[in-house]
Specification:
The complex is a heterodimer of chains A (217) and B (250).
Chain A: H1 3-9, H2 11-45, H3 47-62, H4 65-72, H5 82-107, H6 111-119, H7 124-154, H8 167-176, H9 179-207
Helix pairs in contact in A: 2-3, 2-5, 2-7, 2-9, 3-5, 5-7, 6-7, 7-9, 8-9
Chain B: E1 3-14, E2 18-29, E3 33-37, H1 44-51, E4 59-64, E5 67-68, H2 74-79, E6 81-85, H3 96-100, H4 102-106, H5 111-124, H6 141-152, E7 159-163, H7 171-188, E8 191-196, H8 199-205, E9 208-213, E10 216-221, H9 223-228, H10 232-244
Parallel strand pairs in B: 3-8, 3-9, 6-7, 7-8
Antiparallel strand pairs in B: 1-2, 1-4, 4-5, 9-10
Helix pairs in contact in B: 5-6
The chains are: A mainly alpha (217), B alpha/beta (250).
Chain lengths: 217, 250
């Protein structure tokens, strides 16, 4: 039985696991964006928080993923369901690129533009929403892109704690010493990562400030 | 006379060591164009930014329209003062029209009034209405600077701060904009504080010239007095200019 026959025979399960995978990553990125972007904005305003926040996000990145899944296991409510746990871990890993890119993006806005805005009497909020965020959007989306691609890869390990996703096939294949089964998990995951990379890359270009690129409305 | 802007014993220091401005006393009359003339790093721009509270004085008082700047609501203060800088600082993601209408926009003007104002301003600074939908990077340096001036005039502020607004332009465009500025100022009679290091520009545009040297106000003179002054600091400036200017000019 070759790889394609295997996929065809198990197509409902492959589809199910792919959707499960996508769901985990999607929810994790959703929450990471919800937390990471405001944190990134926060540290542009309060430089004192810069080191502790970026430092913590950095430390989280250094924890091996399997260990992080294990650490979170005893947590109440979260630990009760493997998928919750996986989502939390993925969201934690996604924080660093999101916080950092938001920070770098906002800090990278031409200071003369910010000063002009301030000099004309824009409030901090107006400056943020009308100037800094729009001009930083491309860089922020680049952070989402990196976070998403990393998450898709990492989510395969979530199968080790029974959270499902395409990692199921990878672990099963490893146990069975069957390359085709491993590939049935690995190839769709790789394709998903590639697809996410390309589509978010496109979005990144689309959302980069109009006046900065060659695009016209 | 009633000064629109007043500096009383104003010093500005960074940390404990670098003093950028020392004990400045200065009165700027309503409707005049006061030039702050001086070399790079003399404290001209610092003086300008103290007026709209982009910088806060280490000591001393600054009064704008009879109210101390530290008693003003800083946002309100800045919205009564137009601000033009050398790098223009146009918002690259806004069209020309939206850049010009920025202050009316953040002041929540009704749409129709705002559009009318944008049209009026574009006409005032000599911008072709056809470029309203363009982005700043599609403009020439001269057009960008006109947009910068129009934006500063957005909500018709009584005071205009201009920080070397024509410094980055080619000589021909600069001369053109200087002439237009004079004509504009004749009509509008704003209180203008204009920073430059170019003596020719200072003599052409100013009603009075304040020479700033190393964070201190050296002297304030009218352009006529300035060229005739025997003050050594003024003479240094005038001589430097004359030796670099081509013969038969100035």
């Amino acid at each position: 039985m070759n790889f394609f026959q295997f996929l065809l025979q198990n197509r409902t399960q492959v589809l199910e696991l792919t959707l499960e995978h996508l769901w985990m990553v999607g929810v994790a990125i959703f929450f990471a964006v919800l937390i990471g972007i405001p944190l990134g904005i926060l540290i542009t305003r309060w430089p004192l928080l810069n080191k502790p926040i970026l430092g913590s996000a950095n430390i989280i990145q250094t924890i091996p993923s399997l260990a992080l899944f294990g650490f979170l296991l005893p947590a109440p409510w979260i630990g009760a369901r493997a998928s919750r746990l996986a989502i939390l871990a993925l969201a934690l890993y996604a924080l660093l690129p999101l916080i950092r890119n938001t920070y770098v993006g906002i800090k990278g806005v031409d200071p003369s533009i910010v000063e002009a805005g301030r000099g004309m009497g824009m409030t901090n909020r107006q400056l943020l929403w009308l100037v800094q965020l729009p001009l930083a959007l491309g860089v922020i989306i680049a952070g989402v892109r990196v976070a998403t691609v990393i998450s898709i890869g990492l989510a395969t390990i979530a199968a080790a704690i029974g959270a499902g996703g395409l990692g199921e096939y990878i672990f099963r294949g490893l146990a069975m010493v069957n390359n085709q089964v491993i590939l049935a998990g690995a190839i769709p995951a790789a394709l998903m990562a590639l697809l996410a990379d390309v589509s978010l890359g496109w979005l990144e270009k689309r959302l980069s400030p109009v006046g900065m690129t060659g695009r016209h409305e | 006379m009633n000064p629109a802007i007043q500096f009383r014993d104003v010093s500005y220091r960074i940390g404990n060591t670098r003093e950028l401005l020392h004990n400045l006393n200065l009165e700027i009359e309503s409707g005049e164009t006061l030039i702050l003339l001086g070399r790079s790093g003399s404290g001209k721009t610092t003086t300008l930014k103290l007026i709209n509270s982009l910088l806060l004085p280490t000591s001393g008082d600054i009064t704008v329209n009879k109210r101390l700047t530290r008693e003003w609501d800083v946002i309100q203060l800045r919205r009564t003062i137009g601000y033009v800088i050398q790098d223009v600082g146009l918002f690259p993601h806004f069209t020309v029209a939206r850049n010009i209408g920025l202050v009316p926009e953040i002041e929540d003007w009704p749409e129709a009034k705002m559009q009318a104002r944008i049209k009026e301003l574009m006409h005032l600074v000599g911008l072709d209405p056809d470029i309203a939908a363009r982005y700043p990077r599609e403009l020439s340096g001269g057009q960008r600077q006109r947009v910068g001036v129009a934006r500063a005039l957005g909500a018709d502020p009584p005071i205009l701060l201009m920080d070397e607004p024509f410094g980055a332009l080619d000589p021909i465009t600069r001369a053109e904009l200087q002439r237009e500025f004079l004509a504009l100022q004749q009509r509008l009679r704003k209180t203008v504080v204009f920073v430059t290091h170019d003596l020719r520009e200072a003599l052409l545009l100013g009603t009075r010239i304040a020479l700033v040297e190393a964070g201190r106000l050296a002297t304030i003179l009218t352009p006529e007095e300035f060229v005739r002054s025997s003050d050594p600091q003024v003479a240094v400036y005038v001589n430097a200019f004359e030796t670099t200017a081509p013969r038969g000019r100035a």
